[in-house]
Amino acid sequence: MPLPYFQFRDFPVGLEAQVQQAVQEAVAGKQYVLGPQVQAFEQEFASYLGAETAIGVGNGYDALVIALKGLGIGAGDEVVLPVHTFIATVNAVLQVGARPVLAEPNKYTYNLTAEMAAPHITPKTKAILAVHLYGQVCQMEELQQLAQTQSIKLLEDAAQAHGAKYKGRFAGSIGDAAAFSFYPTKNLGALGDAGAVVSSDAYVSAFAARYRNYGESRKYNSELVGVNSRLDELQAAVLRVKLRHLDALNLERQRLAQVYFQELQNTGDLILPHMAPDCAHVYHIFNIRTQHRDALQAWLQAQGIGTAIHYPVPVHLQPAYTFLGHKAGDFPVAEELARTSLSLPLFPGLTEAEQQRVVEAVKAFFRQ
Ligand SMILES: *Cc1c(COP(=O)(O)O)cnc(C)c1O
Q1: I need a labelling partner for 343 at 20 to 30 A (CA). Which of 74, 80, 161, 269 fits?
Q2: Can you give the pLDDT at residue 279?
Q3: Residue 343: which domain range?
Q4: pTM of the model
């Protein structure tokens, strides 16, 4: 029986039925765009996070773009961000006309830190874009201090960190603004594309609420030149159901992660995820590292066990981004991560027998 890297399961049991029920009700509501479901979800998500507002948008990429614009970032500005991230983070900066300035991640947490960001700050820098990679929040206090002393903005890419905490605060509620993606496989996922801009800055929220809907403050009154990046009612209805289970889903991810930690410690040259201080990790991705990554991935594949690599080619070595002017060797930490990282199956509903199969196969690989 093949075990995929990721699969949607009915966890907690009954969730699928609740989602179907919510979809049916939203269909029956006959109001499909920017209706009561979206409004309710926005309120519930903001209140869950402890932020002032959440504005539903079309996807995580748009959330990043709209948050950047709302923070006043545009042509001629520089934004410091980690080179080890999903490509959307970089694209969003380019989309608003700013220059992405890439920084190495910390070699233990794989996240951007104030120490790594500071040397890249110039008079043109307008923001730091911190990505809470794999479900672990960046060390935000130091980043906030840096942003404050430099009078620049701090934006969170929280697309992998729904429900993750740092010093008791939720990812997405700490910086000047945050972008969330609700892509189906994220910890809080819709049944299609969806995203949100979260902020406690009234200007950012007001901007996002207009910009996502052609700049309208009222019907046919455009206060600014906006786009169409609306969250639709069906997705909002689904997200409302799943938000109620987010803590339970994350607890299950944390439990599964603990099993991997226990079973895989001291196995070959494996490096397991590093717990940063003051962080509650939500394991969007369970990343392990080994010098024998490709062989281990092939070994697992031969036994029907799916894995993934986040991310195989760092941003600065992607063909589309050569214009940024980097070359191999410029970011040794990110390049080492790309060469050695492997993500193991970890999703709510993964059974004990399935996880044991993964554990045994990994151990057997290192016993050869
Ligand atoms: C998923 C993701 C995004 C983009 O979200 P989409 O909804 O797919 O546009 C942005 N940043 C990170 C770190 C992500 O993981």
Answers
A1: 80
A2: 96
A3: 247-367
A4: 0.98
